[in-house]
């Protein structure tokens, strides 16, 4: 059980050295922990903003939460009523070459139903058509990405030529091209889509590639319940498991790269805690050497080595808690105002309107616990020297 006098002595050791009028190593260590926590929180939150933005673009626009392929007509209404499914939308995809008077570019054309806005509102919300609109009622119209339009030198109202790479167009010696009118431009925020994707109606995509396969995109209320939803769809429609692709499998390599990037960032920034923990270890050992007389007196009046070790372990805990709490508050303040700070410092890149930020409470808690744990462990290891001090040897020369 922790004694009150242990806390009292521990707090005294952390305070400034009044005799030399120097800041104690404990306060400097707490400041180091605060800086480390601040750096980790701000960097990881900005990284989360970018990564989660990419993930949301991919799963809402391209991979969906579940993809159903190589299937015949499904009972969409039955699937829609499965618990946890928010939407299901049929679509077609085909690879094409698109050309303008200036250049030719490869692109993926996605054909969606006329009522796609009602079937899958999240798709158009994430697509972000910022100029013009999707006009499925007008034949031979297309919506293209902003970067693709810039590369082709086109704008709304211009004509674009499209030829499918895997359809009937290349069955002839000379492929047949179809001309479409651009009615809208989108800017999803994910450059791969903005540079290589086009949206048109189902009738239009079948006119350039009649052999393209019908697929279904399923969205869930919680994308992490994809396995349960896939199992229910398989049981309901008697599908093979190979016909359903989860968003995890569809983007496995990309998501693994994001996870590795984030883990490496945690490790690199976590080295700050390692450096500070060495400082705590050395300062604790030095304090023990300086306080041998006091430790000898405490041993002489009946204190056990374990109780004396608690003094220095509590030092580490107080340093960790103080620095960790200060770092969390400062880190959250910096993160929530990162765009204003960068504007004042004139460090914001010209192509970034706003720095995306996503705060994950579990990660904040993990950083805090990690910082405190490092401090306590360092103090615990350093305090083992206390057991080597005997009151007889210390007091013999006093």
From TrEMBL:
Domain named MacB-like periplasmic core: residues: 27-205
One GO CC term on file: plasma membrane protein complex
GO BP, one annotated term: lipoprotein localization to outer membrane
Protein name per the record: ABC transporter permease
Pfam families per record: FtsX, MacB_PCD
Superkingdom field: Bacteria
Membrane-spanning ranges: 27-47, 263-281, 317-339, 359-382
Family matches, as InterPro entries: ABC3_permease_C, Lipoprotein-release_system, MacB_PCD
Ranges of residues in domain ABC3 transporter permease C-terminal: 267-391
UniProt entry keywords in alphabetical sequence: Cell membrane, Membrane, Transmembrane, Transmembrane helix
């Amino acid at each position: 059980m922790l004694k009150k006098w242990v806390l009292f002595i521990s707090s005294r050791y952390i305070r400034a050295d009044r005799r030399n009028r120097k800041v104690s190593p404990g306060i400097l260590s707490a400041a180091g922990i605060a800086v480390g926590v601040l750096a980790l929180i701000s960097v990881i939150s900005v990284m989360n903003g970018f990564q989660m933005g990419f993930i949301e673009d991919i799963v809402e626009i391209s991979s969906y939460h579940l993809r159903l392929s190589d299937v015949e007509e499904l009972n969409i209404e039955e699937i829609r009523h499965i618990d946890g499914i928010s939407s299901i939308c049929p679509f077609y995809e085909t690879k094409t070459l698109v050309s303008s008077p200036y250049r030719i570019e490869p692109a993926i054309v996605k054909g969606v139903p006329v009522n796609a806005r009602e079937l899958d509102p999240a798709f158009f919300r994430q697509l972000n058509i910022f100029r013009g609109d999707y006009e499925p009622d007008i034949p031979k119209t297309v919506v293209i990405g902003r970067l693709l339009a810039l590369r082709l030198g086109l704008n709304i109202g211009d004509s674009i030529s499209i030829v499918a790479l895997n359809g009937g167009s290349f069955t002839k010696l000379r492929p047949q091209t179809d001309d479409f009118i651009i009615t809208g431009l989108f800017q999803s925020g994910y450059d791969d889509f903005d540079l290589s994707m086009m949206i048109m109606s189902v009738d239009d995509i079948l006119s350039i590639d009649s052999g393209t396969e019908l697929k279904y995109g399923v969205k869930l209320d919680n994308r992490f319940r994809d396995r349960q939803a896939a199992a229910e769809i398989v049981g309901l429609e008697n599908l093979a498991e190979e016909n359903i692709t989860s968003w995890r499998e569809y983007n496995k390599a990309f998501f693994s790269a994001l996870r590795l990037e984030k883990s490496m960032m945690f490790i690199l920034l976590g080295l700050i805690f390692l450096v500070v923990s060495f400082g705590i270890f050395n300062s604790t050992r030095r304090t023990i050497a300086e306080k041998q007389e006091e430790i000898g007196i405490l041993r002489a009046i009946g204190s056990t080595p374990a109780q004396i070790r608690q003094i220095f372990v509590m030092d580490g805990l107080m340093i960790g808690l103080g620095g960790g709490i200060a770092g969390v508050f400062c880190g959250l303040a910096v993160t929530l105002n990162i765009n204003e700070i960068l504007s004042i410092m004139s460090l914001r890149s010209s192509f970034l309107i706003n720095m995306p930020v996503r705060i994950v409470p579990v990660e904040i808690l993990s950083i805090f616990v990690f910082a405190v744990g490092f401090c306590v462990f360092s103090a615990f290891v350093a305090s083992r020297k206390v057991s080597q001090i005997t009151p007889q040897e210390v007091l013999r020369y006093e």
